[in-house]
C-alpha cells in the first residue's frame, strides 16, 4: 500500500485514525503506526502501551500489527484483548500508561481505526501527536537499535466494572427493568460485567459480539438505529432503555414510553447530581448542547464552561478548569473521577441512580430538563463552506442578538431564545446545522430558511 502525505492525512483525522480496511489501512500501515507512536512515547520517557480492540473482524490482526510495531521500538505492550473504549481509558488511567484502542466506533463494518491516548488517558490530537505520526508514516520511522519490548496479556474487565460501581452507588435503588441494545458491539461484554449484582433486571437486545452488525448500525445518533430498542422497551415494560454504539463509549437513553431522552437532558441531570455533592463546581458543555444545560448548572450553583465540539477540546478544558463533569450533544459524557475520559455506561449509571431513588417514571422525571426543542444535527454537502456560512450570516443581519465563532458560527436571535450553529466538518465537505428554539414551529421555520441558503 503506497503512501503519500495526502493519503495518510485522509486516514489520520483530527482526533483519531480511521479508514477502510484493505483500502486505506492494513496490517503494514498499523505496524508502522505502532512504531511511530512508540517512538514518540519513548522520546517522552514512556515505557508501556496498553492496547485493546473491539469485535470487528479486522481488529485482532490490526491491533497485533500495531503491537509488533510498538515492541520494535522498545516499548512494552499490555494486550487487553476485547475491550470497550472507556475500558481502555480505565486501563490507561489506572495503570498510568499510554493507550491505543482499535475501533471505528459507529462506522460500518469495513472501517477500522485507532483512538490514542497518553498515560492517564490524556487525549491525543493533531497537535499532540497525530501530525507527527503522519510525518513518520510518510518519511519513515526513525531507526531504533535498542532491545525490543515485550507483550503481556491482561484482563481488566473485572477491575473496570468494580471501579464504575464504586463511583455510583446503585445498591439501594428500587429494582428497575432495563432494556439494553448493545448493537452487537462491545456493550454486550461490558454491560453484564458492570451491572453484575445490582438491583437491575437487564433485558438484552443484540448482545452477541458481531462486528458485521447484522441487526442495525451501531450508531444510536441516527434515529433509525433506536427503533428496535424503542419497541423493545415498551414490549418488555422496561423502566428505561440504553443504546450503545459499537465501542460502547456512547450511551443514549430511552424512556418507559419508548421516547428518546436528549443527551442534553442527560448532561443536565448528571451535572445536577454532581453539584449536589460539590457545590460551586465547574461543568463543561459543548456549544451544541441545549441552552437548558448552562441554565440548570447555574440554577444549581455551578459554573458552566462552554467549549468546542470534540473530545480532545473537552478533555483539555476539563483538565484546565478542574471541571467535575462534561457533556456533549452526541452522548459523550466526561468525568473527572474517570481520568477526565468519557464513559457512556457511567452516565447511564447516574440516570439509573436518579430514577431508582424516586418513584416517578423516567418521562416525568426528565420533563424538567427538556425545556427547548432542538433540530438535531443536519448535514449538507457544500464545497465552499465558508461562503455558505457567510451567506447565512448576511441573511440574518439585523436579527441577531450575538454572533460568536468559537466553533463555526453560533447565532443568537434577538427577542427570542432561539439560536443556531453552523460549522464545517473537519474531514468532509459538509456543513453541520443545529437549531434550538422554544417551539417546534420556530425550529422548523429556521431550519427551512437556513437550509434554503446553504443548499442553494
UniProtKB/TrEMBL annotation:
It is an enzyme of class 5 (isomerase). Residues 12-128, 160-258, 265-372 form the Alpha-D-phosphohexomutase alpha/beta/alpha domain. Its cofactor is Mg(2+). InterPro entries: A-D-PHexomutase_a/b/a-I, A-D-PHexomutase_a/b/a-I/II/III, A-D-PHexomutase_a/b/a-II, A-D-PHexomutase_a/b/a-III, A-D-PHexomutase_C, A-D-PHexomutase_C_sf, Alpha-D-phosphohexomutase_SF. CDD domains: PMM_PGM. GO terms for molecular function: phosphomannomutase activity. Its EC number is 5.4.2.8. Transmembrane segments: none annotated. Residues 377-451 form the Alpha-D-phosphohexomutase C-terminal domain. It comes from the Bacteria. Keywords: Isomerase, Magnesium, Metal-binding, Phosphoprotein. The keyword RNA-binding does not apply. NCBIfam families: PRK09542.1. Belongs to the phosphohexose mutase family. This is Phosphomannomutase. It comes from Corynebacterium guangdongense.
Amino acid at each position: 500500500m503506497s503512501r503519500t502525505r495526502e493519503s495518510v492525512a485522509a486516514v489520520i483525522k483530527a482526533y483519531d485514525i480511521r479508514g477502510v480496511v484493505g483500502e486505506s489501512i492494513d496490517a503494514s500501515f498499523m505496524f508502522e503506526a505502532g512504531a511511530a507512536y512508540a517512538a514518540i512515547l519513548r522520546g517522552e520517557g514512556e515505557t508501556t502501551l496498553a492496547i485493546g480492540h473491539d469485535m470487528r473482524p479486522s481488529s485482532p490482526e490490526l491491533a497485533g500489527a500495531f503491537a509488533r510495531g510498538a515492541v520494535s521500538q522498545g516499548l512494552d505492550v499490555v494486550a487487553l484483548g476485547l475491550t470497550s473504549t472507556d475500558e481502555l481509558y480505565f486501563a490507561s488511567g489506572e495503570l498510568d500508561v499510554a493507550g491505543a484502542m482499535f475501533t471505528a466506533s459507529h462506522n460500518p463494518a469495513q472501517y477500522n481505526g485507532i483512538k490514542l491516548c497518553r498515560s492517564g488517558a490524556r487525549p491525543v490530537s493533531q497537535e499532540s501527536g497525530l501530525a507527527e505520526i503522519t510525518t513518520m508514516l510518510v518519511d519513515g520511522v526513525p531507526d531504533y537499535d535498542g532491545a525490543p519490548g515485550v507483550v503481556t496479556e491482561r484482563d481488566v474487565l473485572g477491575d473496570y466494572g468494580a471501579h464504575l460501581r464504586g463511583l455510583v452507588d446503585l445498591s439501594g435503588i428500587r429494582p428497575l427493568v432495563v432494556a439494553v441494545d448493545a448493537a452487537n458491539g462491545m456493550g454486550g461484554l461490558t454491560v453484564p460485567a458492570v451491572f453484575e449484582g445490582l438491583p437491575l433486571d437487564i433485558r438484552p437486545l443484540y448482545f452477541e459480539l458481531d462486528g458485521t452488525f447484522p441487526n442495525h448500525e451501531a450508531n444510536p445518533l441516527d434515529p433509525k438505529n433506536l427503533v428496535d430498542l424503542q419497541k423493545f422497551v415498551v414490549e418488555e415494560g422496561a423502566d428505561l432503555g440504553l443504546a450503545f454504539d459499537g465501542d460502547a463509549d456512547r450511551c443514549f437513553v430511552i424512556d418507559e414510553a419508548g421516547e428518546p431522552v436528549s443527551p442534553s437532558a442527560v448532561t443536565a441531570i448528571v451535572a445536577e447530581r454532581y453539584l449536589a455533592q460539590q457545590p460551586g463546581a465547574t461543568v463543561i458543555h459543548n456549544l451544541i448542547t441545549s441552552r437548558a444545560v448552562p441554565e440548570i448548572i447555574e440554577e444549581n450553583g455551578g459554573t458552566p464552561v462552554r467549549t468546542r465540539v470534540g473530545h480532545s477540546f473537552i478533555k483539555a478544558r476539563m483538565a484546565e478548569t478542574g471541571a467535575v463533569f462534561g457533556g456533549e450533544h452526541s452522548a459523550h459524557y466526561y468525568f473527572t473521577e474517570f481520568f477526565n475520559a468519557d464513559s457512556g455506561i457511567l452516565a447511564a449509571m447516574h440516570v439509573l441512580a436518579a430514577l431508582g431513588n424516586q418513584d416517578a417514571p423516567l418521562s416525568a422525571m426528565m420533563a424538567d430538563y427538556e425545556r427547548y426543542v432542538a433540530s438535531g444535527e443536519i448535514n449538507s454537502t457544500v464545497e465552499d463552506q465558508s461562503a455558505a456560512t457567510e451567506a447565512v450570516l448576511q441573511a440574518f443581519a439585523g436579527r441577531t442578538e450575538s454572533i460568536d465563532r468559537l466553533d463555526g458560527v453560533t447565532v443568537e436571535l434577538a427577542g427570542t431564545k432561539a439560536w443556531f450553529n453552523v460549522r464545517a466538518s473537519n474531514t468532509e465537505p459538509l456543513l453541520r446545522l443545529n437549531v434550538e428554539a422554544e417551539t417546534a414551529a420556530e425550529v422548523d421555520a429556521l431550519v427551512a430558511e437556513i437550509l434554503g441558503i446553504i443548499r442553494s
